[in-house]
Amino acid sequence: MTTAxxxxxxxxxxxxxxxxxxxxxxxxxxxxxxxxxxxxxPLADAGAVAAPTAAAAAKASPLVVLCLLDGTxxxxxxxxxxxxxxxxxxxxxxxxxxxxxREYERWAREHGAxxxxxxxxxxxxxxxxxxxxxxxxxxxxxxxxxxxxxxxxGTVTYHxxxxxxxxxxxxxxxxxxxxxxxxxxxxLRLVQxxxxxxxxxxxxxxxxxxxxxxxxxxxxxxxxxxxxxxxxGPLDVQAALMDDMIGHRESAGxxxxxxxxxxxxxxxxxxxxxxxxxxxxxxxLLAPHGRP
Length: 292
Prior knowledge:
This protein is an alpha/beta fold. The chain contains eleven helices and eight strands. The protein has helices at 14-25, 41-45, 54-59, 71-80, 98-110, 140-150, 165-193, 198-208, 212-225, 235-251, 257-271; strands at 7-10, 30-33, 49-50, 63-66, 89-92, 114-118, 133-138, 155-158. An eight-stranded mixed sheet has the order 3-2-1-4-5-6-7-8, with helices on both faces. Helix 1 links the parallel strand 1 (7-10) and strand 2 (30-33). The longest helix has 29 residues, at 165-193.
């Protein structure tokens, strides 16, 4: 007789289906529901119970997982769950903002449910392996109760009782990737304009990546402490290098807007008497006006 926690999965797109299949593979009695009922068929064939409504699906399990397209879909499904989630833990794995997560947590509390907000950092084929990450936040008691089940999905971290913290982590991690990659693409455009083989250059850049973790950690420590050592060299020296980089890009017809923004920040920091500090000190200029 199985002792695995029964789980309901609401939403059976590529990711929701992967979640449901993983729960089934781990021995959890699994109930599924999707607005388009035909998507439930393959999972029913694999052993899941296909519920006729979202409410019926939610009533079937103590752990109810939502994996939907967006916030609009979440709100529509929550509207159909009134009276069906009392005493259950609601886990929302839909992408969204911290403010949305906090609003969903309030909704869950008002309807007698515990709430965990989670985000998915990886692709469906990796669900059930350590190569996909799930940051969670919200009810500590609910996380403790269901941690073992949630860890079967991938690499799990708990960020605290504020339900919005998982979304903060997710959006920030994704933002770092996009900022890095758009800069990388601009740089590929630059080296290609100079006749350099971009594939060979990319391999050299990849080889330099192991040096970055220590730098990223030290910069975060500097920001937290407000003590800015010359991490990449003093800003006085970096500003001169930035002029060279801007000139190089413009001579090759490659976009230099972001480099000019960085140079402007450096110049402001130097003018304020901080030319001996490092690149991390530019953080002091990034706050919205009037805020610390």
